[in-house]
Amino acid sequence: QVQLVESGGGLVQPGGSLRLACAASGSRFSSLGWYRQAPGKQRELVATFTSSGTTNYADSVKGRFTISRDNAQNTVHLQMNSLKPEDTAVYYCHAVSMWSGRDFWGQGTQVTVSS
Questions:
Q1: CA 85 to CA 33: how far, in whole Å?
Q2: Which of the pair, 98 or 12, is modelled with greater confidence?
């Protein structure tokens, strides 16, 4: 059974930093990363490791966010620096099973950037 467990969200002031973590279990994953959904908006890619092992970032977070992966522990982190109010959203861990090709989502963690 695939499980994606997120942690690390919270409230931070503009310009601050947060680090999100996602512990993935139950499969081997070809793609592992983060999406976000702000109120009234569609879910969008933030950063991900692709099936070829490269990283892909949304233009809006390039230079501020860094995704990293610990393959031994099947964990992916998202270091978010220089946070802006427009980064406020629910952040979801996303994974694609290497075995079945199915998509899986975590429960989401709230990130709020506000003074």
A1: 22
A2: 12
Per-residue 3-state assignment (H helix, E strand, C coil) for the chain: CCEEEEECCEEECCCCCEEEEEEEECCCEEEEEEEEECCCCCCEEEEEECCCCCEEECHHHCCCEEEEEECCCCEEEEEECCCCHHHCEEEEEEEEECCCCCEEECCCEEEEECC
According to DSSP, the residues that pair with 81 across neighbouring strands are: none
**55-87 tens-digit pLDDT:** 999 999 999 999 999 877 789 999 999 999 999
Residue for token digits 């977070």?
61
* Burial class of residue 25, CB neighbours in 10 A (0-12, 13-18, 19+): middle
Beta-carbon contacts of residue 16 (< 8 Å; ≥ 6 apart):
83, 113
Q: Residue for token digits 């499980």?
A: 3
